[in-house]
């Protein structure tokens, strides 16, 4: 099962782009990369996901390297409300018994500074 | 559209007591998940339901934990008896279908404290 590695913490100045890296060097060809974030005392919130191509939505952009061994979540103009723990997840393929892994790990604690 | 609803938000009990958590998923969502989140850690899956069927309960400690999803809508997670180590946040999530490109919507969680 693909495992992800993220830095434990990062700071970003308000209004600047926040670039959050994730390493998933053991990812296999049909495993998706997801990003969620969790603001204090709330449940995780979906941000974006991708398979091979770069993706963009109203919240963020996801850049996946060509070999798919790493990805970067980009918040283009970070605000104080983006302070949260960001989780990079690789969803494993489904086994014959119908189970799969969707491991959140410990994430990156992003602090946006005024 | 209402989000995932969980109750209670907070629960404090003595060890060895039973406790139950309730979850109402987003209307029309067939897949329901229960997660456990310890302090400083990411959520860990306990059980996943497709409609009323538990399709993955491999991580559910079955000696003290049980869950049900009657009629494929609401779900209840129970612990009996609770232990000190069960103190954590219990999160419920739902998705329309359990396919790779469907996002999960999480509720606010129930914070359990076992004394």
Protein described:
- The complex is a heterodimer of chains A (114) and B (115).
- By secondary structure, chain A is mainly β.
- Chain A contains no helices and 9 strands.
- Chain A has strands at 9-13, 18-23, 32-38, 45-50, 55-56, 61-64, 70-75, 84-91, 108-113.
- In chain A, the strands form 2 sheets. Chain A has a 5-stranded mixed β-sheet with strand order 1-9-8-3-4, with no helix packed on it.
- In chain A, strand 5 and strand 6 (61-64) form a beta hairpin.
- At the A-B interface, strand 3, strand 4 and strand 8 of A face strand 10 of B.
List the helices and strands and how they pair.
The complex is a heterodimer of chains A (114) and B (115).
Chain A: E1 9-13, E2 18-23, E3 32-38, E4 45-50, E5 55-56, E6 61-64, E7 70-75, E8 84-91, E9 108-113
Parallel strand pairs in A: 1-9
Antiparallel strand pairs in A: 2-7, 3-4, 3-8, 5-6, 6-7, 8-9
Chain B: E1 5-7, E2 10-13, E3 19-24, E4 31-37, E5 44-50, E6 53-56, E7 65-68, E8 75-79, E9 88-95, E10 105-106, E11 110-114
Parallel strand pairs in B: 2-11
Antiparallel strand pairs in B: 1-3, 3-8, 4-5, 4-9, 5-6, 7-8, 9-10, 9-11
What's the quick description here?
The complex is a heterodimer of chains A (114) and B (115). Chain A is mainly beta and 114 residues long. Chain A has no helices and 9 strands.
In the predicted model, the low-confidence regions of chain B spanning at least 5 consecutive residues are: none
Q: Output the helix-strand order of chain B.
A: EEEEEEEEEEE
Give the assembly state of these chains. heterodimer
Poorly predicted runs of chain A are none
């Amino acid at each position: 099962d693909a495992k992800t590695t993220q830095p434990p913490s990062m700071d970003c100045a308000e209004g600047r782009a926040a670039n959050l890296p994730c390493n998933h060097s053991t990812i296999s060809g049909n495993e998706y990369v997801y990003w969620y974030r969790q603001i204090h005392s709330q449940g995780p919130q979906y941000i974006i996901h991708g398979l091979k191509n770069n993706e963009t939505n109203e919240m963020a952009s996801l850049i996946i390297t060509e070999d798919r061994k790493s990805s970067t979540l980009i918040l283009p103009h970070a605000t104080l409300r983006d302070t949260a723990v960001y989780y990079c997840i690789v969803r494993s393929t489904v086994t014959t018994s119908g189970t799969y892994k969707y491991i959140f790990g410990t994430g990156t604690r992003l602090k946006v500074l005024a | 559209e209402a989000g995932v609803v969980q109750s209670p938000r907070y629960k404090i009990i003595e060890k060895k007591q039973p406790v139950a958590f309730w979850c109402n998923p987003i209307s029309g969502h067939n897949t329901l998940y229960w997660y456990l989140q310890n302090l400083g850690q990411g959520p860990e899956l306990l059980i996943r339901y497709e409609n009323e069927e538990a399709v993955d309960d491999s991580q559910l400690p079955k000696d003290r934990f049980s869950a049900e999803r009657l009629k494929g809508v609401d779900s209840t997670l129970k612990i009996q008896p609770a232990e000190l180590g069960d103190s954590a946040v219990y999160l419920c999530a739902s998705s329309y279908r359990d396919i790779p490109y469907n996002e999960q919507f999480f509720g606010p969680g129930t914070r359990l404290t076992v004394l």
